[in-house]
Amino acid sequence: MSGATTGSTVPRRQLGRHLRDLRNASRLTVRAAAKQLEWSEPKIWRIETGQVSLRSLDVEAMCKVYGADAELTKGLMGLAKETKNRGWWHSYGDVIPEGFDLYIGLEEAAERLSWYSSELVPGLLQTRAYAETLIREDNPGVPDEEIARRVEVRIARQALLTRVTAAPTVEVALNEAVLRRPVGGSTIMSEQLQRLVELNELDNVAVRVVPFSAGLHAGIMSGPFVRMRFPANGGGRDTEPPTVYVEGFTGALYLDKPHEIDRYDRAFTAIWGAALNHEDTQSLLRRATREL
Prior knowledge:
292 residues, alpha/beta, 434 Repressor (Amino-terminal Domain), Endonuclease, Chain A, seven-stranded mixed beta sheet, 13 helices, 49% helix, 12% strand, globular, Lambda_DNA-bd_dom_sf
């Protein structure tokens, strides 16, 4: 088993988290699991904390001991292959089954989520009708039942905004073009804008619009992205390294190298500085709703 640290740590951390959850669900201690697998306890610990890459055959052995079903085993074996990649691209459509998404797990664990979106309302803030319009457009020919399932996944994610325990701080900077593009028609879009107004009144959510009058700003250069930061442990250290997620047309880009995080930190700070304040954003959202 390789201990290489090249490439993104995201797949390793995600794989370790899933394997730990499987072990706990099977009611096995680290010692018991190590004994059955004929490994050392430190090896199990390094795997579960995402410190090492893992062979797919090792994952298969762990899944067998933990009683995982065939689909989950296949997904985790695909994820194990990603832990050895030096690049950042993870095409989760071909090696990881639908719904077994790296991003959702990271989003759930994050303490702070900072978005810049240039074209569309982010999934966490979408109404059901707006989400369905986008998902249907992006999946031509897919049966209605599957479309409905994907919409439900997106809506279910939104529960984290108002969860009672440790709801994350969410900062969303929207290019004004997002407001002006009537996705799904005027009725759906006006409902979506009203939803943004309502969410912007939550204590842990801040939506800001970067107006056209801001001219050239950092978001035009960076493109859309999500920056995720995670809670600190008892020793004051981050439980997970900060991660930036960039969605592409055929895959997703996860960045967690310090110099990359620093560059996106600076970009988001500049974008936020170019955005309207809370009151002016709310006013613009309401005005755009009336115009629709």
